[in-house]
Amino acid sequence: MARILLVEDDAEMARLMSGILAVDGHEIRVSSDGLAALDVLKQAPVELLLLDVGVPGVDGFEVCRRVRARESGDNRTTIVMITGRHDTASKLLAFSVGADDYLVKPLDIRELRGRVARWIDSRSEHAELVMRRRRDAIREIVSTICHEINNPLSAAVMGVDLVLARAKLDDESRRNLDTVSASLQRIEDVITALKAVEDRTVPYQGASKMIEIKPRG
User: Of 51, 83, 86, 89, which is closest to residue 67 (Cα–Cα)?
Assistant: First the structure.
């Protein structure tokens, strides 16, 4: 399902939450300290960070700020702050440092499971959208390359073929033109392969995916 890091200094609460989420099939890691959590994230990124505001080391707000500061591109962790504070100022602070959502203790187990499922589904939809955009960009690049190369290539092939067919050439000149013709044919083969490009996702050890491009056949 999803890789989740739970940052919670209350051992009983951490045990309860991690047990419930593990039953739903998620891979759960637990940290009781803000600095330790940052180290864990450096070594093994996660899709979802459940972050208690009051953890020792550095508090949850600072952990969230540091995580966001070192992120780039599409590799973005969903961060949910967890706290016993009900005041609006705390919620606004959480969102200002980059939190995606905010849960208030005491937690309702059904709400926790439901929100986690929603956050994971949202990430999957976003990942699919990013992948579609990448595929569309690849197709556009391939189409442009083929168009820009194909016209001058066709003219070059026709010119070489015409010279070989009509001109009186010595053996060395003919061999040289044969070499040029073979090279042009290889370029044509590459263009043909590009036109038939097949893009698909392949597994990658990280939070994102890579695009593999290969010709059909």
Answer: 51
Contact of 17 with 41, CB cutoff 8 Å: no
Domain annotation covers residue 126: no
Distance separating alpha carbons of residues 95 and 108, to the nearest angstrom? 21
The pLDDT value given to residue 97: 92
Specify whether 100 is located in the same domain as 170.
no
Assess contact for 96 and 126: CB atoms under 8 A: no
- Structure confidence at residue 200 (pLDDT): 45
Q: State the pLDDT at residue 127.
A: 58
Q: What is the CATH number of the domain that holds 189?
A: 1.10.287
* Same domain assignment for residues 100 and 163: no
Angle among Cα 20, 21, 25 to the nearest 5 degrees reads 120
C-alpha separations of 65 from 56, 135, 146, 151, 169 in Å: 16, 32, 45, 52, 73
- Please compute, for residue 190, the number of CA atoms within 13 A of its CA located in the half-sphere on the CB side: 13
Q: Which two tokens stand for residue 207?
A: 């939070």
Q: Domain range holding 207?
A: 131-215
Mean pLDDT of successive 10-residue stretches along the chain, which has 217 residues:
91 92 92 94 91 93 94 81 85 89 88 86 65 67 77 84 82 86 85 65 40 43
